[in-house]
Amino acid sequence: MEKFILDLQVVAVEHIHDRYVLLKLTQEAPLPKMYPGQFVEVRVDGSPSTFLRRPISINFVDETNNQLWLLVAVVGDGTRQLSHLKVGSTLNCVLPLGNTFTLPSDKDEKTATPARVLLVGGGVGVAPLLYYGKWLKEHDVEPAFLLGARTGGDLLMLDAFKQYGSVYTTTEDGSAGERGFVTNHSILTKERFAWISACGPKPMMQAVARFAQQTATNCEVSLENLMACGLGACLCCVEKTVRGNLCVCKDGPVFNTQELLWK
After folding, report:
1. CA-CA distance, 12 to 9, in Å (whole number)?
2. Given 78, 111, 200, 208, which is the most exposed site by the fewest CB atoms within 10 A?
3. Is 213 helix (H, G, I), strand (E, B) or coil?
4. How is residue 200 annotated by DSSP?
5. CA 148/CA 156 separation, integer angstroms
6. CA distance 76 to 79
7. Per-residue pLDDT of the chain (263 residues; tens, 9 = 90+)
8. 91 Cβ partners below 8 Å, 6+ apart?
């Protein structure tokens, strides 16, 4: 898939949480085609300690307004600089990178009913699931979202997710949704899903993968290994798989959990 280096204009900077900022980017020409699960590498200007680009998941593509959305977790100087961007400034991006989430059949093979897909996210791992949910909905596959966080105030973009499917939540302190982790939510025992896709902290994804294995459910995860080049050249994001050592940035970030040699 062709890759581009683009100077995109910042048209909105939305501080949706004290640790997260939503950047909306555009250009005069139509944006390149991008798919759910892919990511961009952004150049961070103005940070003397940030030498490498930062990989950020594609949160959403608004075709109507020709916008790319990036949900940025502010965790260090580089992402802090990104959170200080102003409307009208420019962000240099390499895109689109990586592979994509799978588009399951619109029928559940076991029940011959419309397929339901569960998208599970934790923390900033919810970012790629919004565009994926939109994509599924447009292809007549019904998504449901299971989103987890420490507290209710840490749950992100709930109104946006509700546009594309049912939203279920868990919080560790019980301040919103059901108390506990995403794998404790009652929806997992009440409803059947033909497919599960997840993104978030590694322990969360491993727990989701175990649940999927126990229930014989297809499962994909989007890995968040440390990445530098985004092109498979530096080998710093290698993951052990049944196919050998693979670069998450080039061969992923989306993997079927049956491929991964997780302990």
Report:
1. 9
2. 111
3. helix
4. S
5. 9
6. 6
7. 899 999 999 999 999 988 999 999 999 999 999 999 999 999 998 777 778 899 999 999 999 999 999 999 999 889 999 999 999 999 999 999 999 999 887 556 665 556 789 999 998 899 999 999 999 999 989 899 999 999 999 999 999 999 999 999 999 999 999 999 999 999 999 999 999 999 999 999 999 999 999 999 999 999 989 888 888 898 889 999 999 999 999 999 999 999 999 85
8. 7, 8, 10, 23, 25, 42, 43, 82, 85
Angle at 166 between CA 165 and CA 171, to 5 degrees: 130
Taking the complete model, does pTM exceed 0.85, yes or no? yes
Strands 244-247 and 54-62: unpaired
Using alpha carbons only, how large is the chain's radius of gyration in Å?
18
Q: Among all chains, which residue has been given the structure tokens 């997992």?
A: 188
- What is the rounded (10 degree) CA torsion for 54, 60, 65, 68? 10
DSSP class per residue in 125-158: GGHHHHHHHHHHHHTT-EEEEEEEESSGGG---H
Tokens describing residue 178: 């059901």
- Do 144 and 135 contact (CB within 8 A), yes or no? no
